[in-house]
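Changelog note: in this version the structure field was regenerated for every chain. One regenerated record is shown below for reference.
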Amino acid sequence: MKNIINKWYKNHALIYKILLFIGTTFLIVYLFPKSGKFKYNFDKNKPWQSENLYAPFDFAIQKSPEELEKEKSAIVENSAVYFDLIEEVKDFVYEDYNKKFNATFDDSLGRKKTELYRIGKLVLDEIYKNGVLEEDYNYPNDKNVILLNGQNQIASTTYSELSKIDAFRKLLEKQLEDKNDSNFSAVFVSLFFDLIEPNLKVNKSITQNALQEELDKISGTRGNIERETLIISKGELVEGHKYDVLKSLESEYESQVWNSSNYTWVVISYSILVALTLLMLLLFLRKYRIDVFLDNTKVTFIFFNILLMVLLTTLIVNYNAKYVYVVPLAVLPLVLKAFFDARLGLFSHVLTVLLLGFIVPNSYEYMFLQIIAGIVTILTVSELYKRANLFISVGQITLIYIITYFAFFVIHEGSIIDLTFEPFGMFILCGLATLFVQPLIYIYEKLFGLVSDVSLLELSDTNAKLLKEMSNKAPGTFHHSLNVANLAEASANEIGANAMLVRVGALYHDIGKMKNPTYFTENQSTGINPHDELSAQESATIIFSHVLDGIEIAKKNNLPDRVIDFIRTHHGTSLVYYFYMKEKEMDDATDAADFRYPGPKPFSKETAILMMCDSVEAASKSLKNPSSTKINDFVENIINKQMEDGQFLNANITFKEIESIKKILKNKLANIFHLRIEYPE
């Protein structure tokens, strides 16, 4: 059991990476669309670029939205309107007519009264032939109308055949005029105004149900394509019927929700592709960025950012795919470049875009746009801590988006007539969202404990609290640190190392000397040396302690681990030579190991640079009458001894880079000592 626990602990970093790899793969596959994806890209009125396409299964040809809308409009136009006919109203009106007519017209009119009665009766018969409307519904005159009595259909006519409530006036006046009885017109009109009652009322419920029933009968398809039927040949134009068939096939693929029979296979296939993509990232880290690979926090950070971009894109696509370009994907290479380097940022960005190709529409166009934008991001964004640089770079990225999209649009459409400004607005929004990278970097620093150039710039300010304290307590050490920082920064720039990081490391590498400043020669302004009262072993112990004291002070002041690494390694396992020789004079059996720093040795280019610059700058104070030859021999001697002592064995620094650093140090020291050209004697 103990052996199992030991093995588990020994391999816990690898086990964590495996679990992270599996978990990220699962989450990305979970976010992927649960439907089929058509594997061909095509555009209307453009040649078919792929091989001959045969129908993979039977499917129906779907009608276009325009066709369906046309059919719906035709049905709505030709649909019938149902009216309830209330027969009792007509009977009541006729009965009321008899009473009111006799009360209005006197019997003294004789036969004229009978003739007038017949005229009124004819008018009533005419307007109540199909019924009188309650109101004018403004239907077309040829609108089909069905009359109902309860639930029974009793007649079918057109809207023009129905009478409006004031239609009697014209009929009545015409009848009276034909009989030369126009002088009775006013009396009759007044009588009919009180008499006429509507007996037709539209039945909205039945009308709507009947219309919906007809609309439901509309078929979304027209015809079928049988399996193995040739749909389109290579080079053939995608137009007309063939375009409709291809759109139908594409829609059929995308509407196929994973069912129980193929779900497992589709998930396995997606998992394989996602796992391969993430595996490429891990292999890249293992081969080219081993320091990142060995740090589980950094690996988690990279995987988290990739997953975040997939999540954001999925949410936008599910909401509305046309807004997909609002997602600020350029943030990914920006963030990774800020914390790591450009190559890792671009590699991760390309892999993320490949994953998003499974989600987005027009995947080729999307991938081309995003990869180009990612490359521009890496090439243009430098010194992210300078706000102006970020704004300029985001403007360039946005411009590239707009130009590339415009080119794709012209290729697809063949003209700019239908070009709209909506996509360009989305690219501008994307650019504005990319500016959020600054606060995002700050959040990531707090969450993952990483260090960006922005934080390094803040730490390099000599007015920072800790550096201010060192300048007061140990002014000689502070001055030494500034000189080392300048030398280290120049050396780092020469070999392509992180100049900002090594400068900050140099500024803080000796902060431990603040605890006992007078025990270090650069702070001994009075000429009194406390070491005169101590043994060589005690003096060496105090000298060693400035490393551990520096680490303690750095942690109390929340300095990043990357900066603390410089404090820990700037002496490596080197020998405190002065006190060792002093002790050896007294005891020849003195063990050199007792006078060596505890280490560790430098394990990066930056920490190796600091060791060289620190040793050279400190020792240069002892140079008497410096000349170019003396400085050359001096630098060569110090750095060669460090190499012979194996101090750079763990640092990924080459002999060529060390020689470049030597050259820089020689030039800088020559400038410091204001050397003039040596003339021959």
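Spot check on this record: The two ends are 80 Å apart (CA to CA). The mean pLDDT is 84.
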